[in-house]
Amino acid sequence: MLAEILIFVPSIARFRVDFLALRLEKAQIASLALLAAEDATVGAELESELLKNAEVFNVVLRRDEVRQLVLSSPIPAPIEATYDLRMAGPWELIRDAAAVLWRPEERIIRVIGNPVQDAGLLIEITMETGPLRVAMVEYGLRILFLSALISVVTAFLLFLAVQRLLVGPIRRVVRHMTAYAEAPEDARRVIAPSAEVEELRVAEEAMASMQTQLTNALRQKERLAQLGAAVAKISHDLRNILTTAQLFADRLEASADPAVARAAPKLVGSISRAVSLCESTLAFGKAEEPPPQLKRLPLRVLAEEVVEGEGLAGTEGAVVCLVDVPAGLVIRADGEQLHRVLANLVRNARQAIEATGQGGTIEISGGEDERDWWIRVGDTGPGLPPKAREHLFEAFQGGARKGGTGLGLAIAAELVRGHGGRLELARSDADGTEFMIRLPKSLGAGEGE
Question: 110: Cβ–Cβ under 8 A, 6 or more apart, which residues?
């Protein structure tokens, strides 16, 4: 529409100027015919015919500074407006053309212009606007029809271009997405980029890369699921076998043979670690941990239970565990799950200290601020190696000691996340390691006290 307006408006203004210029030219020819006569006079009938052919009421020529009424006839109405084509600019011509179209009533106007072939200083005519308006309307309709035809052809070509360059490729992408969603493991359904538009091609390449990665991930997930099921079965059976072996190993400690008595504790320790590994593998292999049953509980009592359960309640051993929790501190948590988290952290700290062959201290402290309850578990062990820090809470990658699997920390972090909190490594250096547990005081959406 904007293009049609930009074409139509100047065109109709130019047509009006050409129409008036043609009237001036006809009037000049009629005037010259009169002036060419020997006595410069003609009869009334011939003068009327000349004016009728020129389609004007009168003609005035200015030659040699003399204004001369060459042809004249009665004017049916007063002259309403005068238009000087010599001085009109583009905006004036457009305005005057619009005035002719919007005023259908008949008017008498005076038009001034330059004579052709320099036949005088100016020529002036008086005429009706009716024929001008009729001619302009007919010309405008032709212009509109032609522009509409061009617009239809252009729209059709644009439609074909959009269908080929945009709609077609987008439909193709949608079909590929639908087909891929039905069987994402099938690598044959990964889209092959072929769009001609650069932006669509980039999108297809990104989607192809994403589909390839997802297909590989699904295949790996399926293989890991099968492997996990097999490992779970093996761990279950192996745990039963090791439990039986542990019972027999316990009897070896009472043997009268000094060599057997010395070897028995090492054998019992190895079997115990193997049983613990099987139990951790089975626990991690569950589809999901049950949601925590949040209840109010005293943190100090829970910490003391953990210390007692890990055999660190006394002060006779090389490893000492201290509890620095206010007696009145009450938190909201799942007691069983939080017990597992703290027991895992205390057990890891004890094993790290024992691995040095020297004594050490483990400390469980707790407190609260405006937003969270916090629990800190620190030790004076050797600290975590750099490799263990990189994948600390990832299963089978974050083991801190030789032979460790990292399952304990992965499960502990998952349990804390189930509470809406987070388990973080606060510090680990030559002076020891410190873990921080933060449990939010605010309840999640839809939960109550």
Answer: 79, 81, 82, 83, 124, 125, 126
Q: Which residues contact 208 (CB under 8 A, 6 or more apart)?
A: 190, 191, 192, 193
Beta bridge partner(s), residue 429: 432
CA separation for the pair 227, 234 (Å, rounded): 10
- Domain range annotation of the chain: 2-145, 198-284, 295-440
Give the residue from 321, 377, 383 showing the smallest Cα distance to 355.
383
Taking the CA atoms of 89, 91, 93 and 95 in sequence, report the sign of the dihedral they define.
negative
The CA-based dihedral angle spanning residues 144, 149, 152, 154, taken in that order and rounded to the nearest 10 degrees: -100
CATH superfamily of 295-440: Histidine kinase-like ATPase, C-terminal domain (3.30.565.10)
Question: How many residues would you count in the chain?
Answer: 449
Distance CA 243, CA 386 (A): 35
Q: How many CA atoms lie less than 13 Å away from 414 in the CB half-sphere?
A: 17
Q: Are 268 and 283 in contact (CB under 8 A)?
A: no
- The burial of 338, by beta-carbon neighbours within 10 Å (0-12 exposed, 13-18 middle, 19 or more buried), is given as buried
Q: Give the Cα separation of 42 and 34 in Å (integer).
A: 7
Q: What is the edge-to-edge ordering of all strands in the sheet holding 432-440?
A: 319-324, 360-368, 372-379, 432-440, 422-429
Find tokens 């009533």 and name the residue: 105
pLDDT per position in the chain (449 positions), as tens? Answer: 677 777 778 888 899 899 998 988 888 888 777 776 645 556 677 778 888 888 888 888 887 667 778 888 888 889 888 888 888 888 888 888 888 888 888 889 889 888 877 666 788 889 988 898 999 899 888 888 887 888 888 889 999 988 888 888 888 888 888 888 888 877 778 888 888 888 888 888 888 888 888 888 877 777 777 767 667 667 666 766 666 666 666 666 666 777 766 666 766 666 766 666 666 666 655 545 567 889 999 999 999 998 888 888 776 678 899 999 999 999 999 998 999 899 989 988 998 888 888 889 999 999 999 999 999 999 998 888 877 777 787 765 545 554 455 677 888 888 899 899 999 999 998 889 999 999 999 875 444 44
d(CA 46, CA 52) in angstroms, rounded, equals 10
pTM of this prediction exceeds 0.70: no
